[in-house]
Amino acid sequence: MGEWAASIEVPDLVGMTGGEAHALCRELGLFLGYYNMDQQLPRSMVIAYQEPPPGTLAERVAVVRIWTTLDPPPAERRRSDDAG
Q: Mean pLDDT for the chain?
């Protein structure tokens, strides 16, 4: 088994299903974090947003947070968090 580099370029997960994104991140040594930690990631839902963005360099075992097409966009979520 070969050695992994210390950092990796974050892949573009937008448009993938949760299951596809989970498999890719696992293969690359990244973790997938669903924005709504109270619920299971709907593996068949399509990913609409992610943080960090594609192309960003991240440490191995970093978390890539995702939002699905049925979740509020990150900017709207931040506005509602700030209001409450």
A: 82
